[in-house]
Amino acid sequence: MEKKTNIEYLFKPRSVAVIGASQNKAKIGYRIVENIVSHGYQGAIYPVNPKGGNVLGNKIYPELSQIPGEVDLAVIAIPARFVFDAVKDCAEKGVKHLVIITSGFSEVGNTKEENKIVQFAREHGMRVLGPNIFGIYSSAVSLDATFGPGGILPGHVAIVTQSGALGIAMIGKTTAELLGLSALVSVGNKSDIDESDLLEYLAKDDATKVILLYIEGVKQGDRLVEMLKQVTRKKHVIVVKAGRSKRGAMAAASHTGSLAGTDEIFDSVMRQCGVLRAESVQEAFDWARFLADSPLPKGREAVIITNGGGIGVMTTDACEKYGVDLYDDQKTLKETFSKVMPDFGSSKNPVDLTGQATVQDYERAMEAALANDEMHAVLSLYCETALFDAEELAPVLKKEYRRYRGKKPIVLSLFGGATVESITRELRNEGIPVFSDVYDAVSCLGALYRSWRNLNAPVESAEKVEIDTGAVETILDRARAEKRRSLLANEARGMAEILGLDTPQALLATNLDEAVQAAKQIGYPVVMKIVSKDIIHKSDAGGVALDLVNKEEVVDAYQAIMRSCRSYKKDAVIQGVEVVEMVRPGVETIIGARQDGSFGPIVMFGLGGIYVEVMKDVSFRAAPISHKEANDMIAGIRSYPLLLGVRGEKRKDIDAIAKVAIKLGNLVERCRDITDIEINPLIVYDHGKGVKAVDIRVLFRNLKGGEQR
Ligand code: COA
Questions:
Q1: Cα separations in angstroms, 417 against 32, 389, 424
Q2: Predicted structure pTM score
Q3: Mutational test site, ligand 1, from 78, 107, 147, 161, max ligand atoms within 8 Å of CB
Q4: Which domains does the chain possess?
Q5: Is residue 145 within 8 Å of residue 36, measured between CB atoms?
Q6: How far apart are CA 346 and CA 309, in angstroms?
Q7: Which of 64, 207, 346, 544 has a Cα at 20 to 30 A from 642?
Q8: 10 Å Cβ neighbour count for 346?
Q9: CA-only gyration radius of the chain, Å
Q10: Tens digits of residue pLDDT in 176-223
Q11: CB 228 within 8 A of CB 273
Q12: 8 A C-beta contact, residue 554 and residue 526
């Protein structure tokens, strides 16, 4: 029977065994013991190696069973073929967690052995980190059980990384950048413990203020989404994902054995969860360091203090780019700053002290901004000038930063020559957030603001919609009986009816007379479309005729459709034509839902036509979604202003789009056999006038709940 092991012991083990501990300094098994010892681990250390002996002052036990005390954590660093036997020994000893460093498992196709180990471990109440990892660091018990370069600084950032090599390099980088860590976990093949398990623990860990995830591919994405939505309400979460480009995604896939999802989906879903996505490891580190140290702002408005006009304008641009609002009460700005600046300065925000400013002016202006409770964050900029140099300014910046560091967010940017660069380094080494480029400075503040908004946002619960899943299955079963994987137009329309979507009136006609009758009944103008399971792309086959305004046009079009479809595919079985009401024009959009390989059920929205085809202007969310999430998804496309109404047009019925998105999300979440449903176009009318689902495509698995045939 599976027992549940408290993951706390992974981060706070009272004792650690290193299986494969070596006296040979060139071996990974030596390096791990060395790091554990030199980092000052607070618990008991038990090196294990059949040769026995002593390593770095610690007795080596020839066998695990000979260890006198309990073992909470076993780090395994022996060749793959011996690992399973070692895991059996661990079970006998009552070990709680296994940290399997060893490579040579699923990442090289040896999935069977990996699964065997995990299954055995689970059956014996052990959780597995790895295999194929560089280890784990936890500041809670001063444990560095990695074979990294050592010297990790304790702090408040937890790093969880899928890449081993990059993770090891990150250790050195954190030390060089003085980024203090609460934890560093290498997840490798994620055979058992994955990001979600770790997030669950780190969310509750008091030492962790910021969580930084390096991800290459997502497995069990729906669980990750649930977890991230919760965690971002408690902590800042940053993600760096490799595989942004198509080529990068392919490299990542072959690297880890797990397929990276498409980047647009990843990006949208991270936004939905409130996760900050960094472009690069450097940006992620800058954010992590800043977010770990900075207090949360008390409001939205920032003030820029500068002694250079140009750099002030550039910072204003950067604020717009990163969503940082600038304090704009001109009266207060004037009252606050006009008395502390040279005559020709500008008290508007950016507060420009000009190149004439003295270091005293600068200090007074900075103090005035920091002391004012209405100014919620301060960006202090310095451009090298003839009147005072950075060496004079440094003590002022240090003093002001120290005085206000816990009270409001402060970011600095210094720009100039060698002295400025050296002062920048000096300040950074003292933990002051200072950058050479204003964009880097503002990017940090922007990240803080975005995260702050998430921390204050309620966790959205998905909107549930009643769906007659029995009726859905009946439609699918009928199509399955014909060995199809897609629904015919009239069946798809049946699906739309189940969902309560507004569709154009339509009738199936199996001969010309019926087509004429149907057109009369619906009312002109009408559209006619071929109905055949053998013709998926109706337009290509000449199977669609639009805007038929009278009986003669219907007759001509019917004959033309039949002719061209027969010549397009001679043996096509044609059920007839569908005569459909010609819908009023509106904004053409595309909306869909599908089963994504990484995140499970997802919904998608975009504007139709060239917007989706050329501009790829679409937005995604992991389903099911709340009304707010649906609205955020719709607002997430670049062409959103077209829905708000441009050039005197009325706002479109965004609410009605959101309702369709919620329904589609519910459908694919409940009916996992539906792999794709897409409405293209979904015509959107003015606010309050609704939407019309014109063309619906439904793809499904033709084996119930199983594999595609
Ligand atoms: N119990 C305890 N010790 C054992 C053992 C067992 N069952 N079986 C072997 N050992 C000992 C060996 O005798 C050796 O000790 P020694 O140096 O005193 O002779 C030590 O464990 C290591 O075994 P060895 O055969 O020398 O292997 P290795 O050190 O060359 O390689 C790994 C072991 C785990 C490092 C290697 O298999 C591996 O997977 N390397 C890649 C690791 C990696 O990159 N991980 C991902 C990082 S992101």
A1: 43, 10, 11
A2: 0.89
A3: 78
A4: 295-456 (3.40.50.261), 505-581 (3.30.1490.20), 587-706 (3.30.470.20)
A5: yes
A6: 9
A7: 544
A8: 18
A9: 31
A10: 999 999 999 999 999 999 999 999 999 999 999 999 999 988 878 889
A11: yes
A12: yes
